[in-house]
Write a structure and sequence with these properties.
single chain, mainly alpha, two-stranded antiparallel sheet
Length: 242
């Protein structure tokens, strides 16, 4: 459900996170696999304590059903079994997620080439790593293989910092809040160039200061800067992937 908040000016990630936390505190079975398969739009809103339809709500409900069904079919109804089956490998867990759950297959065709970005699959791994402090379910021997999570906010911050530069037509589209088509060349370039830019930043930081930073760390810093600047213009694409 962690995608596409922008059509609702008041909805943020914090509403989603706090809503889910409160729901689980009230009912520990709220996100069990069998329950996920049966949620309706109004029930999801009630779960999150949100007063009106969510952006692309029907897709959020469909993906909840998809996750619940596949967890039950392949992992005994337990997300923990999915994590365990990855053998402490971030890359393996991402491969398992994208193999079993079509809603996580965040890739596009760009000038004859497939581009794989996997924002939500990667952030699932990163959230586990962060929540469990690199231990237990959050222990991954290859956590450094995770890239940034190419979304709306990080590219906007990179642009503000002068790291990304857009052509005049793309700049006008973003600054005027025009929608950019999902899977279009512009959208893929914004997201892929953001990943590449941060990997180059990692290289330069290591070369200049001798510090081995994770892309996750840089992403968190950039994202935190972005959410504090409400006036920051970002690209607008209706997508289930971010």
């Amino acid at each position: 459900m962690n995608f596409c908040f922008w059509p609702d000016k008041e909805l943020t990630y914090d509403h989603l996170a706090s809503g889910l936390k409160l729901a689980l505190e009230k009912d520990k079975t709220a996100l069990d696999a069998d329950r996920l398969q049966n949620y309706t739009g109004p029930q999801l809103r009630q779960l999150l304590n949100w007063p009106r339809p969510l952006p692309i709500e029907e897709e959020r409900v469909r993906l909840l059903h998809e996750v619940g069904m596949e967890l039950e079919r392949s992992f005994g109804g337990e997300a923990a079994n999915l994590v365990k089956s990855a053998g402490n490998s971030a890359a393996t867990l991402i491969e398992l997620i994208t193999r079993h759950f079509p809603g996580f297959r965040d890739h596009s065709l760009y000038k004859g080439h497939q581009v794989f970005l996997y924002k939500r699959a990667q952030i699932f791994v990163a959230d586990l790593w962060g929540a469990f402090k690199g231990q237990n379910y959050g222990e991954f021997h290859d956590i450094n293989s995770i890239t940034i999570f190419a979304d709306y906010i990080v590219p906007a911050v990179l642009r503000e910092l002068g790291i990304l530069k857009y052509g005049s037509n793309l700049s006008c589209s973003i600054d005027s809040n025009s929608e950019i088509v999902p899977g279009s060349e512009e959208e893929v370039e914004i997201r892929a160039c953001s990943v590449y830019a941060v990997e180059k930043m990692r290289e330069l930081i290591n070369k200049k200061f001798g510090k081995q930073l994770l892309s996750i760390d840089i992403d968190l810093w950039l994202w935190s800067c972005g959410v504090q600047n409400m006036a920051l213009s970002h690209h607008r694409t209706l997508s289930i992937y971010y």
